[in-house]
Specification:
Layout: H1 2-23, H2 30-50, H3 56-79, H4 85-104
Helix pairs in contact: 1-2, 1-3, 3-4
Amino acid sequence: MHTYALLFIAVLFETFGSSCLQASQQFSRIWPSLGAIFGFAGAFWFFTLVLKSLPLGITYALWSGIGIILIALSGRVFFGQKLDTPALLGLGLIIAGILVINLFSRTATH
């Protein structure tokens, strides 16, 4: 379970970094730009720790899926970006994929 906590921390850093990237307005604002750099540095650091225990493909699938959902939520909350029905359906399919990997795949180390 410790590995999945590290992965979630990595995704939180990545979400923070991506949100700061949006707020930086193409690196024209200093504090959001520094936040983006900090967020991505932390994300990749924790990502490497997760790779000690989980295979790259599984780790990246989980990272991407969880990150997409959190970024969509961040976009909605902080930037007023609304999702339409097809986007919500797609996010639901991503969640389903994460569940299939973790519940049924023998590739994922549990």
